[in-house]
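Pasting as-is:
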Amino acid sequence: MLLGLDEHTINIVNAYAPTTDTQRRIFFSSLEQFISNDYDNIIGGDFNCILNTRLDKLGGDPNARQTATFFLNTFIAHYQLHDIWRERHKDE
């Protein structure tokens, strides 16, 4: 969805990743088709991944079914995306 805001166009993507690790890897690989190279991107949704096990995981095995996190981190780095909430709340 492209949104014009004060003569600035933004590409908004809402993503809901699958719950299984294998399906998430495929999903993150396919997200690229929704990213704009011409406009700023805002991506939100539920990625069903834990990027920071120290802050975002309580109980259980912190590495269970999280190999897709590698693919999400690669995607984030490639498109220079930022987790605004995490940047503003570094230790919460």
